[in-house]
Amino acid sequence: MTTIKRKQRFVDSSVQGALLYQAVRHWVFFSVVSFLLVFTMQVFTGGFERPLTAHLDEIWSRYAPLTIVFLVMLPAFIFDLLKLSHRFTGPVAKLRRALDELAAGKPVAPIRFRQHDFWQDAATNFNTIAARLEANRDPGGQADPPHDAPLELVDA
What we know:
Layout: H1 13-46, H2 52-103, H3 120-136
Helix pairs in contact: 1-2, 2-3
């Protein structure tokens, strides 16, 4: 099966933006707490009588590579989180569009999600419901009242 590449950077900017914002907030918080811990340990082990700049110089000389790694990894984390979020925002966006069409009384083609997207069962359930509604539609384009027969839906 071929993999369909998503061309949009943001599928649902409000959801994905909130996720990325939260991830950056967590990263900043973790970095600040880590620095404060290292600084506190440096002051306690390096002596209270030394000037602040001497402590900061020693911290930089010891932890510069780690600091650079922290800074370089942030964009990689953001990009990876964005790719992961596509796996659930993409299907939800597609499902919402199909539901809008269905609610407007338009015929809806069966929906399919990408192979590694989450909630594959939601597409199956939607397609079952859409097919049932299409089968109940009279020739004039209006749907008949719902039947009492239960739909067979896929468990999540």
